[in-house]
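User: what does the whole thing look like in 3D?
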Amino acid sequence: MSNPENLRASATFPLHVINEIHRAADQGIYEIRGFGAKRRVPSFDDLLFLGASISRYPLEGYRERCATNVTLGNRHAKKPIELAIPITIAGMSFGALGANAKESLGRAATAMGTSTTTGDGGMTEEERQSSKTLVYQVLPSRYGLNPDDLRRADALEVVIGQGAKPGGGGMLLGQKITERVAGMRDLPAGIDQRSACRHPDWTGPDDLEIKIQELREITDWQIPIYVKVGATRVGYDVALAVKAGADVIVLDGMQGGTAATQDVFIEHVGIPTLPAVRMAVDALQDLNMHRKVQLIVSGGIRTGADAAKALALGADAVSIGSAAMVALGCNRDVYADDYAAMQTRAGYCHHCHTGRCPVGVATQDPDLEARLRPEQGATWVRNYLTTMVLEMQTIARACGKSHVLNLEPEDLTALTLEAAAMARIPLAGTAWIPGINGQ
Amino acid sequence: MARFDLEKTSLRELNAWLHGQPDAHVAVLNPAGRHNIAVGVDAETDIDIEGHVGYYCAGMNKNARITVHGSAGPGVAENMMSGEVRISGNASQYAGASGHGGLLVIGGDASGRCGISMKGIDIVVAGNAGHMSAFMAQKGHLVICGDAGDYLGDSLYEAVIYVRGAMGLLGTDCIEKKMSPAHKETLAALLKAANLTHPVEEFRRFGSARTLYHFDIDNADTY
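Assistant: Here's the predicted 3D structure for the full assembly of 662 residues, as structure tokens:
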């Protein structure tokens, strides 16, 4: 018998591919799961900052001020959004998340002076009460959408797509559809609830312009209107959203999370956040609208370094979804038996779609949800956001910036050819930007 | 009665005034196909719009009784919550889309996707309704006094559809169901509210077979 140490795995058929083919052969259906893309794609990890030296001087850490505030939506709205930090909480539905998770996020965002966002299924009272600044999503499903909530929102977000599944709708499986969730969505409890992939009453950019005007008229031009797109044809989408009247573009790269979608969709549709940011900024600059229409970037933002790199590439703010859930306890190494019951374990769980979230975040089960107390959840997310802000400021000061929004592409260098080409940042040690110059 | 001439007054002024404490009766003159007229109204008021309107007229209406003396563009009364919207002429695509409540009466024909994603609104179409009407309709009633286009009620949830005229192809998971006395009573009330006098016996009822309520791989070829 040959030495097991000499066994050679196939690059074409690695173990996870073999397992997936076996699963498909057994079940005859694609895998539906939560979380986000697990494949490696070019990302902010492939960029580094160039700290100050002789040619530039740094700011004193812990001493010299490095501001983090940002204004969003001052193109048309009478009441733009003023945030203390450029990190917002992304839209996640009540239904996918439990009420305690939504309340935790609202409390943390409020404590940090930033915004949180509703999701499919409408606005809950807990969320509105706990969130000083709440962005209300207008989604294709229109579940729970009503003019009263439009008017008590601080901004609206017309959702065209989502990074995890651009071009796709959603499916909240019946096990998460309690009486309360069903009531908010005007559907029977316990059935699978399809979220449409297209809006029911408009189809193209010219219609979108009229739809945005309608929302402005209903809200008396008081609050900003964001447009959220999943990253695909970013240049066109950003230009068309600007033309349609958006105050803010929310751009979600393929690393963005979802509560439930086909694995093949998560892993194979859309483009990474890294090139998407550059494409969006290019489109805004071409239109002379950069910084006039603000850009919020999401999809795989995990650290203050990620956020700082997005800002350096030209974003005005970032948004976190999956990372905020992790801060709430997602994949925390507790309740091992409950992970095992779903044939997974902490660090690998992507079972949001089952409603059996061991840590009480992505569930409607009262017993599981009780594991997440809003006070504790808010503390975790606040601590996490605080850490991210400190990390951003540390980097910005090292680059000599007195405001994190002063970070610029010239502060960055690329570790890989792919990142250099996608972000149009010179490859480290060279002045070479593939596709731009031949140096 | 207040009067707004949209040749002289801006849409913004009209809607802002309607969002305040409008008079009991309002007349809107020269709409000339403008979009977003009388959107987001939340008041017990009668609004008469004297002519054709563009997109989203009466969108998200609450409580108001809005009459369009002409035809309406796409998305009339979209996401309506309550009140009444009456169109004397035809309505373009997506009439009553995702409406949560209230009554929408279309005096002429409705184009495609009438009542798409409806969530409790009642819609009465005096004429014909186009393809894919009541697509993914969740709650409420759609009454079609004329003919129904193809794929009626595709992926229907709990909304109920009544059709008097000829039927096109039915949408996936939409089936004909028996008319009970309770259904006839409901239909009669809707026709009366729409000022229509058709006998309820001339209508057929359609609803969801509920086979798509849980994703089932055996249904894959129907999607």
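In plain terms: Chain B has a mean pLDDT of 96. Chain B touches chain A at residues 11-12, 15-16, 19, 35-36, 39-40, 42, 54-56, 59-60, 62, 74-75, 78-79, 81, 93-94, 97-98, 100, 113, 116-117, 119-120, 135-136, 138-139, 155, 157-158, 213-215, 217, 220 (CB under 8 Å).
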